[in-house]
Specification:
Elements (H helix, E strand, L loop, with lengths): L2 H12 L6 H12 L6 H8 L8 H13 L3 E6 L2 E7 L5 E5 L5 E4 L5 H11 L9 E4 L2 H8 L1
Parallel strand pairs: 3-5
Antiparallel strand pairs: 1-2, 3-4
Bound molecules: zinc ion (2 copies).
Length: 144
């Protein structure tokens, strides 16, 4: 079992959340996959293992994880939410062709929060920055 999974299960226990086999599997999947899956993607990946599970169950579990601070929900207008296991703070680059989301790390945009707070008097909770473009796979496929 990975340290991340162990820590995540520990966090759930501490917040009084019961750890069911489904929750365990969803967390494990989120930690392993780097693709920022939708609830539907997770459902499709795990339905073989849990035939009685529905997309709604997956979604409810994701909400429990979000409330425990383990998972971030990324919403994009009308498209369905994507879910991201919370590790360190990171940014996203999103492919405009296929919708793939890839993580990257970039230090020090905290000044933006300080400045926003200074200029507006808001107490800043977080910021969100996303970069857009075409992923290497899509660049390749449009070339021929
Ligand atoms: Zn792409
Ligand atoms: Zn991410």
């Amino acid at each position: 079992m990975s340290t991340q999974l162990k820590d995540a299960l520990e966090t759930l226990k501490e917040s009084g959340v019961r750890i069911t086999p489904q929750r365990h599997a969803i967390l494990e999947y989120l930690i392993q996959t780097m693709t920022h899956p939708t609830a539907d993607d997770i459902y499709k990946a795990l339905e073989g293992k849990f035939p009685n599970m529905s997309v709604a169950t997956v979604y409810n579990n994701l909400r429990v994880f979000r409330e425990a601070g383990l998972v971030k929900e990324l919403t994009y207008g009308d498209a369905s939410s994507r879910f991201d296991f919370v590790t360190t703070h990171h940014y996203h680059v999103i492919c405009e062709e296929c919708g793939k989301i890839v993580d990257f790390h970039y230090p020090g945009l905290n000044e933006v929060e300080d400045l926003a707070s200074h200029v507006t008097g808001f107490k800043i909770s977080h910021h969100r920055m996303e970069t857009y473009g075409t992923c290497p796979d899509c660049v390749k496929s449009t070339k021929h």
